[in-house]
Amino acid sequence: MIAVVVHKHIYRFTVKKFLNLKPGVRILFFFFFLLPVAQVAVAQSPYVDSMIRWVSTHPRDDSAKIRTLHKISYLLSETDTKESFAYYERVSRLSDSLHFTFGKSLAQINLGILLSSAGNYESSTKAFFNAIDLADSCAAPRLKAVALNNIGENFYSLKDFEKCRDYAMRAIRINDSVRAWRGVAINYELLHRCDFEKGMYADARLNLDKGMPFALLANENYIFSQVYLGYGKLHAIRNDKDSANLYFGKAIATARADHNLRNEYQVYLAKAKYLKYLTAHEKIVLLENALRLAGQTHFAEGMANAAQPLSLLYESLNRKDSSLFYYRMYRSVSDSLFSEHNRRNTIVNESEWMVKRKDLENNNLKQLAAVQKKQIAFKNFLLFSVGLGFLLALLVAFLIYKSIRSKKLKDESVYKHKIAETEMQALRAQMNPHFFFNSLNSIENFIMQNEKKLASDYLNKFARFIRSILDSSHDELIEMNKDIESLQLYIDLEQLRFNHKFSYCCQVDPLLLSGEYYVPSLLVQPFLENAINHGIGPSDRDDLKISLTVRLEQGRIHYLIEDNGIGRAQAGTYNQQNKPFHKSVGMKITQDRINIFNRDSGLSDSVEIVDLYDEQRRPAGTRIAFSIKLVSHAHAKSHIG
Q1: How do beta strands 556-563 and 619-629 pair?
Q2: Are 628 and 598 in contact (CB under 8 A)?
Q3: Helix (H) or strand (E) holding 414
Q4: Is the dihedral of CA 212, 213, 214, 217 positive or negative?
Q5: Which domains does the chain have, with CATH numbers?
Q6: What is the reported pLDDT for 40?
Q7: pTM of the predicted model, to two decimals?
């Protein structure tokens, strides 16, 4: 209650005195005092609060819980982006764990809405298309209609009104067939906006009139606010001052009733744009209210749309400082949207490439299985022929037997080699998505937290790391020095992600770096990742460090990884408390890779994990040691070739 009173007091001050401040003081007041207080004063919908309480007291992870989490994420998407994203993640995680396709479609809709709010329309549209595919697979036409309408909204923001109209009409047909009146009302309101932007005001009014009966059936303030706003704009275009103000007032009242800040923002913006009798100062107050609400709801496009006319108004008043400030804000937000758009598209395209690559590897495995099946059928045919030949003549049977025996031994040798190679490829195929998911999630976190510089640095290093992986993806073995360079890139990524929380020391036998020795690519990376995430990450020590030692001894390459983190026992307890659904596979996959690589070399079960303790027998980290067989330049050619 105190925050609300303070907020009202400051707002009175703003309306009466804010315009009299000098431009520089006004700017500082707006961004460092008014906006933070306004954000504190925002109340959360009682409906959202009731759903959050229900989720917290609902012990079972079921479809009802998933649907409620989706509603919370949707309702918070315009007021608290961070919390909305957290609830989206819960919807996605629970739906995956329960194999609930309907929930997976809901999660994609949540993600699409969040990406659209950030101005990333391409990735948002892809998420909605994913939602459509999932909705089709579980026979959920209502979800398909929601996704279609949201795709139309994206095309509306991109000023492609024909495509917007097409998707809205497709959504109407589905919603009408399932009697989803709320959806029909929203679809007609979107059609109205398309017509309005194209200057087809009669058609815009007709679509509002068509949608109004369905809005009454839905009986939601959110829809009423949008419909009233549409009528208000139409009356303002006709210069019908009283009717326009009446509808604008209804739009604000219904928006505030359900705390729909985004709708309230739209009303302020529309009044400043379409009410012709307003003075420049009155329009400035409306636009600054719109800008404030856009900032509170993390609506990047909305901030740009409010800042641009503010700059023009101040220019008309010859207030050069304020005009330049809002122009720079407009340009900054626009450039930020474009830059973020490019970065997210890079991640999405890379993710799509990885999916296609996984599909290609699966196809290769299927082809190999088909070849092996043909070989087995051919062997059976030969054995049958040998049996028939044995009946004809013992001598002929003996010669044929020797020939088949020799060929069989040769085929078995080739067959074993192919099996080992296939196992290695399969393990690498499992390993790559495991790491890429963690890295993409880190980039996504930086972007969602608006850490643009960190996100850009991280993305650049991540691109270099992916390039190093791609360069070695066609070879089973790579040079030791290149593998060490890739590991250093990975450590740079993790140090950036953890804000240089730990130090890293790498000591490698100089002879191994001569370019004459080859190793499996990124064999050590999962051990370093495990040490960082489970040993170093949860620790609060100031002298955290990880060391890697690689030496050449007795015809083998010996690896030693040490960290001074919290140790395995405490890490297990930490994960149970903070990551109950997390299942680590990297260590197991890497041990399997090592055992397969060392097959027939006398090295088996060669990974040794030792818990370290200090003088008081308290956990002081973990040591991992293992050895692999030595592969020289000449021998590596046979593996690579």
Answers
A1: antiparallel
A2: yes
A3: helix 394-448
A4: positive
A5: 451-640 (3.30.565.10)
A6: 37
A7: 0.48
